Amino acid sequence: MATATGEPLADRLAAQLRRAGADEVRFAATLDDLAALADAATGPLLVTGTDLVAHTAVLRHLATSPVGPTVALVLSDPPVPGRTAVREERGQVVDAGAVGDLDGDATGVFGGALRVGVDDLPNLAAAARAAASGVLPVAAPIGPAGDVSPLPVAGGVGSAGSAPAGGPGSAVDRLVAGLAALGTLIFAQRVRLLVAHRVEDAAGLAAAEAAVTAVDEDRAELRLSVKEKDDFFSTYFVSTWSPYVVRLAARMRLTPTGVTVISVLFALAAAVLFGVGGRPALVGGAVLLYLGFVLDCVDGQLARYTRHFSAWGGWLDTMADRAKEYLVYAGLGFGVSHAGLGNGWALAIAAMTLQTVRHMTDTWYGVLHDEAARRPRSATGASGGIGDRLNAASTRVQADTGSLSYWLKRTVVFPIGERWALIAITVALFNPLVSLVAVLVWGTLAFAYTGALRTLRARWMRVPVLDTVDATLHRDDGPLARWLPAVRPMGPLTVAVIAALGPAVLLVVALLGDSPEGLRWTVPVALLVLLAGGLGAGAAHNGPLDWLVPAALRAGEYLFAIAVGVVGDAPGWLIFGYVFVLTVHHYDLTARLEKRQVAPPLHAATLGWEGRSVLLALAAIAGMVGMGMATLGAYLLVVFVASAVLAWFVRPARDARASAASLGAGGVTPR
After folding, report:
1. Less Cβ around it within 10 Å: N or C end of the chain?
2. Closest CA to 456 of 393, 370, 413
3. Residue 662 pLDDT class (50, 70, 90 cuts)
């Protein structure tokens, strides 16, 4: 079809793909040609049909999307014959094919374009060959543990199994249906504010071109930098004016990382003012805290506006968010103690521990939900019961965007925006003590609310999660835990909860007793109870609630460290600092899980949760808790920094030099 300017639509698409960042554009005459290209490719491929009319920004967003390696364009148009319908959950395309063949209701239609990551290129080649042969590849059957793993596809579609192709008729539609059938993890790229349409005739082409022309692309991209669904405070008190800051930052050529660093400095300054105390300092700190949160939103918005994404930037943003929040807790805790209002460090430690354990459950529940979404509904056994009703109710509330129930659901869980707003308001109007108490009370209620509902829904979903990842890594086990025998009948969650109870009892007794120093010889007993958590390391983590194991182990280690510090009469700031280093280490693991990164380079040197606890217990028995905690904390901080430098700077530079040397020796330049 010819466009309004007279050039073929396919040629205009090719030019748009180049402007979107493609290094090379080729036309594949057949699906077999595409399979050959996928076999030879050494980088990700951006595949489109020749019937797509869209803003160039739509293709650029698809090419640079940070959500995952393989991403498909998804439109809200009604399904039509010959087009692939999709069912999407939590941003993932969990099913694709003819609308009548989906495992559930369709939530959109395939937009005729997808980016395929390097690791998924073999599946792309297999899907292309299958589609060319008129069959649909079939993934391997579900195993005893509920795993869905595609069979090998290197030998062609026959090795993956096949079924008669039905539904979608165009090549690119059959291609994405085949990818989904092979179990490929495909993320959805929705079109918002911009325009994308697939056209079939001259009239449809003219209408789509008119729709594209009617939208200011740059203005739409600036508005798209704001999250579509954010929390109440962020939506109405930050995002209403932060895009202006984003545009200014882009003109000043600031990077998202640079904005992140500035936001850390704002939070640090606010923490200092909270510690100084006095009404002017508290009000000034509240203002700086608010502005720091605005910048915390701006760094992500700037990344989306400029399309500057990187694994390093995402990791740094996650780590900086937690470091800023806990520095603020430290400032508030010091301010409480400095003003003589009570034991501020105890409150700060409690707030930090609570939020960290909450975040661990948040991360692992997200992994559980994603895993459940990727499985066929019949595989999860999820039907009926209270879990089914809770899931349906949650879906209805989330779909009712902007309603009172929608905002209540998003606010009651106490997200980061609401936490920072609560701190800023309470510290400016009252004092740091009221601020910390308010954070603890709301945080505890939110934890109880989310924990109860997620437990019910998880039992309904009945999907193992830790079976799909490296359980040893994310449990943070050391050599001792791996050496201990596995107590399989009890299950890893039961022994992890028992392990956390010992330190909890010791801490309560130490806080209520008149002479904590006299409890020094009870520390080994609490340690033995804690080490019981290692008895689940070798057991299968496939229970419906085993996603809670990492959080239970984190709680056990933190409680033991705090109890040892109290028994050994260590200063509050030292206990806070040690637990802070532990949280940084554990957030590193969860950030890597969320970003699909491998283990930190020096992970073995962190000794594991049980190794660190044994060293603290030895320090308590020797009567050197302060020295032991300071030394171990400093050691872990050095290991963390060295590991980050190795992971994000040294190894990438070394790999780049090796790649350059390979090219110099006659290697092939990737495209």
Report:
1. C
2. 393
3. low
Structural element, H or E, at residue 651 = helix 651-664
Strand partners, 188: 72
Q: How far apart are CA 19 and CA 6, in angstroms?
A: 20
Got the DSSP string for 296-347?
Answer: HHHHHHHHHHHT---HHHHHHHHHHHHHHHHHHHHHHHHHHHHTTSS-HHHH
Q: What digits encode the pLDDT tens for the residues 63-75? A: 999 988 999 999 9
3-state secondary structure of 187: strand
* Spatial distance between the Cα atoms of 108 and 188, rounded to a whole number of angstroms: 10
Is-above-0.85 flag for pTM? yes
**Low-confidence winner among 20-34, 74-88, 265-279, 354-368 (lowest mean pLDDT):** 74-88
Other Cβ atoms closer than 10 A to 221: 19
Distances in Å between the alpha carbon of 482 and those of 476, 529, 611, 618, 626?
10, 16, 11, 21, 29
φ and ψ at 499, to 5 degrees?
-60, -35
Question: In whole angstroms, how far apart are CA 587 and each of 178, 315, 327, 524, 590?
Answer: 37, 10, 15, 28, 5
Long-range residue pairs from 588-591, CB within 8 A, at least 24 positions apart, any chain: 588/315, 588/319, 588/640, 588/643, 588/644, 589/473, 589/474, 589/476, 590/318, 590/359, 590/360, 590/363, 590/474, 591/314, 591/315, 591/318, 591/319
- pLDDT of 187 reads 94
Amino acid found at 534? G
Query: Two tokens at 426?
Result: 């309470």
pLDDT digit string, tens, across residues 195-227: 999 998 999 999 999 999 999 999 999 999 999
Angle at 10 between CA 9 and CA 13, to 5 degrees: 85
What band does 138 get if pLDDT is binned at 50, 70 and 90? low
> Which residues fall within 8 angstroms of residue 383, CB to CB, at 6 or more apart?
377
Give the angle subtended at the CA of 454 by the CAs of 449 and 459, to the nearest 5°. 140
Residue 382 reports pLDDT greater than 60 = no
d(CA 649, CA 547): 32
Q: Alpha-carbon distance 305 to 222, whole Å?
A: 6
If one compares 144 and 660, the residue with the highest pLDDT of the two is 660
- The span from the CA of 207 to the CA of 646, in Å, is 53
> Can you read off the two tokens belonging to residue 582?
């532990």
Cα distance between residue 167 and residue 152, in whole Å: 25
The position carrying tokens 């994308």 is: 196
Reading the block at residue 15, the tokens are 């030019």
Which residues contact residue 148 at a Cβ distance below 8 angstroms, ignoring those fewer than 6 apart?
A: 139, 140, 142, 183, 374, 375, 376, 379
**Element of type H or E holding 154:** none
Q: Are 328 and 423 in contact (CB under 8 A)?
A: yes
Distance CA 576, CA 565 (A): 10
pLDDT at 142 exceeding the cut of 80: no
Nearest one of 414, 406, 400 to 449, comparing CA atoms: 414
